[in-house]
């Protein structure tokens, strides 16, 4: 039966290792690039190697918890006495053979303390899996928003280049006909050069964002682009229950306290009880034997280990207090950033953008009618492009603030 159980566990281990290997191959970019929505990216991220590692950590902790419940094995001993001596003990006629079975008894609550420590480690690993999933979701939200912003900036850069090229063409005609001085043409050329450099930077930003999202969602970064979705609503106000970070810190504190009991129990000596049969070769008689032994706690009482785990428990208490402070601050910061981004979006996406677009339209018509100068036209174009760029930044800030807020409010049910 034990050999069958060992073979079964070995088979399960091999199958799990094979599944992780296949998942790693699938994650290495074999999936073709496609339009990726936020929901798609979050779904694909569930196969992340980071999550696989967290799941195996939970499996390892669970296996250790099962092992902690197992009691100490008994021992079997065979002893030969009066063997090969002198005088009447020259031969084997005076040999005494003893077959004994002994058992060490765990005292001081060692087993129960060991089980409590193992259960605490399982809880830490289980909550760690939830935290890893929340961290990956935050990273995916950030990467998806960054890719959408990079795409929008590249589109803006293309529009700026088209406007700059049209301005260069117009200035060339006006300079050739003597309606504008050559300096105007040089100014238009400078604007085109600056727009071309900005577009090159936008292309680099787009490639970086594609690789970042591809690494998180397990797709090919070539041609990857983010599909815009409706603005997400912020999570509901947190309930009284602690977030996942605080729950992990509390579980680590409980495990640290359980280690104090385990260290104390390890300082209690464990007696060994034994018993068996003794056979006297000379008379062929038999007799029962019994043995009791117990270590003397003279040199080692495990006092320093107890002191160490007590300090570890105090560290866990301090960590829990700090986690509570950090969690509260993280949520408040994320909520403040979200409110600021919403305010910017309301200002830029509404009247601000309409006014900038209308100012550019008036400036173009006025310049064509000779009522505005080239500088005024360029200023209106710059103001309009600046408004569009600020709107992109505000949307990115909102998405990142939402990602941080979802992470700060992450709980086990998420």
User: What is the spatial order of strands in the main beta sheet?
Assistant: 2-3-5-6
Overall strand count: 6
CATH architecture of the largest domain: Up-down Bundle
Q: Residue share in helices?
A: 55-70%
Can you tell me the residue ranges where pLDDT is under 50 for at least 5 consecutive residues? 20-32
Within CATH, the superfamily of the largest domain carries the name Outer membrane efflux proteins (OEP)
What is the first-to-last residue Cα distance? 41 Å
Comma- or semicolon-separated keywords:
alpha+beta; four-stranded antiparallel beta sheet
Task: Explain what you see.
- The chain is an alpha+beta fold and 414 residues long.
- It has 2 domains: 49-71 and 109-267 and 318-408, Outer membrane efflux proteins (OEP) (Up-down Bundle), CATH 1.20.1600; 73-105 and 268-301.
- Helices cover 68% and strands 9% of the residues.
- The chain contains 8 helices and 6 strands, in the order αβααββααβαββαα.
- It has helices at residues 2-27, 38-44, 49-68, 110-176, 182-217, 244-266, 303-368, 374-408, and strands spanning 35-36, 75-81, 96-104, 225-226, 272-280, 285-293.
- The strands form 2 sheets. It has a 4-stranded antiparallel beta sheet with strand order 2-3-5-6, with no helix packed on it. The protein has a two-stranded parallel sheet with strand order 1-4.
- A hairpin with a 4-residue loop joins β5 (272-280) and β6.
- α4 (110-176) runs antiparallel to α5.
- The two termini are 41 Å apart.
- The relative contact order is 0.13.
- The model is unreliable at 20-32 (pLDDT under 50).
